[in-house]
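Changelog entry: the Zn(2)-C6 fungal-type domain-containing protein record was regenerated in this release. Current contents:
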Amino acid sequence: MPGVPSSCGCNACRQSKKKCDQLTPSCSRCTRLGIHCVGSGERRYKFISALQLSRKVPSSRIDQGASGLVSALQVTDVRFELGIYGPFMAELPRRLGRNEALDASVRALTKAYPSVHSHQLTPDMYKSYGEALRHLCTALGNPATATSIETLCAVYLVVICQGWIRRGADFIPSHGEAIAHLLNAAAERQDWQGQFEAEVSNTLLVLVLLESFSNHKIKLDTRLWASSTSPAIAKPFRPPMKGISEIECLRASSLAAISGYTRNIQGSLPEIVTFHEVWQVDLANMKALLSGMSNMAASELTLAQRRIHVRRQTGYGTLLLLGMMANWALRAFVIGDMHTLELEIAMIVDEVVELAEQAIQYRPLGSSAMPGFINAAKAMTTNMTKLDRLEELLQSYQSDFPLCH
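Regenerated structure tokens:
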């Protein structure tokens, strides 16, 4: 910390920030003002650090993307946690630099993430989103990168960004068919063997299976779930409570079977009846798991408990969605007691309303699945009071995203 010479002017001139002529015994200014001149000609030193510590800034777009993603991943408020989109998200910073589509999609994600908080859209956000789409198209057109795990991640991140910045638009394209194609290619090659690859493929498999209920163009290789030991989204709901088994309806193989039923409902009625019976047991078990937390505010739960609560709410909502489909099929073909089925669908709609009301505390990301459940419930009732309440909840959830205003 070396000394650096400072001004040699007198104290009065230094204090007034005036130039001092340093005459002795009194400088001209002090003589003119008739004040005592002190310190004229004295050499003073100020000390500064010889080592200038500059804050390191990311040196490349890859570093910037990684830095932004790491910062976003450090958020531990379940309302804004990126971990809601899959456990593999924490691994993404280490995957950058291998695939331009993934790098660009991470940049788009980090540019769009602030809009989840602020509800403000910026030109830079749209620019990054457009660049991600361009790089993704290039990657999908290149045989060397088209079916890589990084490209699959890039597709998923683009889907997430799309939901943030385009929700409420008149038309939002689906990427379910593209994701299904990539998953099928992986099943054919069987070269995605690591934990990261398994987490990515299982997460995307469940999303595509759910979309396949309404999009019959999606066709998936049976090896994707036949050879997998993963219980898909059932895994977070393995209950520690004695006497309650795993939630069977949330296994990937079960979702795949249901997808098949939707393509040929009349020919699958016996299987739908069996599924409906299993679903009733699963719904009761899942409700038991959820009820212990349902009467508590988020502030009363630990972070770990809030994360579990969010997962269980999503799982319960998914079960309600599956129940709507089975109930509709049984009523449409007059299978079983109609009065009982009518009471059941009314109960399901009521449960969706209650679930959506409880999940409001985790908006926006922690409850991002709720609009889908609400929309499905709206199609299952003609009760105007319930429809009005469902619409109120839907508008409330959609207000979290810019284009919904």
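The CA atoms of residues 166 and 277 lie 39 Å apart.
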